[in-house]
Design goal:
This protein has a 25-stranded mixed sheet that branches. It is 3% helix and 55% strand. The chain has a domain at 151-292. With 292 residues, the chain is mainly β.
């Protein structure tokens, strides 16, 4: 099934697809939204035929609802013999918003969204650029975003979380998944149980990193002033930064790092700019509060 809708700029996409794949691409065409629904088995074709597609104005902006019915019980041999579910492909103007509700559909977005709100049980999420806020809730799916301009909120039970660059505040939690945040320009609140945390480069704000058994690594951009409060029960702590009891001096942005673990190790380093320093001098204390 293929459909085309005439619009006059970015739209709000409201997608409800229980299982399958959701592929969104944003384009320079600000006058059309194109979508395609592909069924991979006979049962899914029935749901494609019953799909609810509605374009309406909401708060002065086009709102496109794409609602595919949910499979109700029964057994599907497609789960063992070939693909199952439905693939949804959407082409929309740059800056469009995306809302997704799904059980196990994977979500991939190429291009630039104005914002995204995604709830999934087990599907993976891959996003290229978000010029607004990003919110993701998933049980076991992995989440990857290359760039987010505003706030980030990601909650996952066992999936990995990876953010290449975040300009706004970041809040991420995962029980057994790992967390990677390559570049953060604002406050970060990251929590894991057994997952490791890798904060490649932080510039300013408060960085709160808590883990039970996972390791925590935080890199600080050169030129930033740093306040450290690092505590671990049985893990090791190490820092490349010079330790002083005096308040941080200088005109650079202030980074306040509060890292806590039970058995995980904590490492504080200088982020490469352009090259990383060698070595990780170890601290003899498992709990420390220092200025650097």
């Amino acid at each position: 099934m293929k459909r085309q809708f005439e619009v006059s700029g970015p739209v709000e996409l409201d997608v409800r697809l229980p299982t399958g794949e959701i592929e969104v691409e944003t384009t320079d065409d600000a006058t059309h939204v194109e979508l395609e629904l592909i069924a991979h088995d006979e049962d899914s074709q029935q749901f494609v035929d019953e799909a609810r597609l509605e374009l309406r104005e909401q708060q002065g902006r086009p709102h496109l609802l794409i609602d595919i019915p949910q499979r109700r019980g029964g057994f599907n041999f497609g789960s063992f013999f070939g693909r199952q579910g439905i693939t949804l492909r959407v082409r929309a103007p740059h800056g469009s918003g995306l809302s997704v509700r799904t059980k196990s559909a994977d979500v991939s977005v190429g291009g630039t969204l104005g914002g995204a709100n995604i709830a999934s049980a087990s599907g993976d999420v891959a996003l290229e650029r978000i010029d607004g806020e990003l919110s993701v809730k998933t049980a076991s799916g992995d989440v990857r975003a290359r760039f987010v301009r505003d706030g980030v909120s990601v909650q996952s039970a066992s999936g990995d979380i990876a953010i290449d660059a975040a300009r706004g505040a970041v809040s991420v939690t995962s029980a057994s998944g790992d967390v990677w945040i390559d570049e953060a320009y604002g406050d970060v609140n990251a929590g894991t149980v057994s997952g490791d945390q890798q904060h490649g480069a932080v510039l300013r704000g408060t960085i709160s990193a808590h883990s039970v058994s996972g390791d925590v690594h935080i890199g600080v951009r050169r030129g930033s002033k740093v306040f450290l409060d690092c505590t671990t029960v049985s893990g090791d702590t190490s820092s490349e930064l010079e330790v002083s009891s005096d308040a941080p001096a200088g005109d650079g942005p202030l980074v306040e790092i509060r890292a806590k673990t039970v058995s995980g190790d904590i490492q504080i380093t200088r982020a490469p700019a352009p090259a990383a320093d060698a070595g990780y001098p170890s601290s003899s204390d498992s709990s420390q509060e220092v200025h650097a």
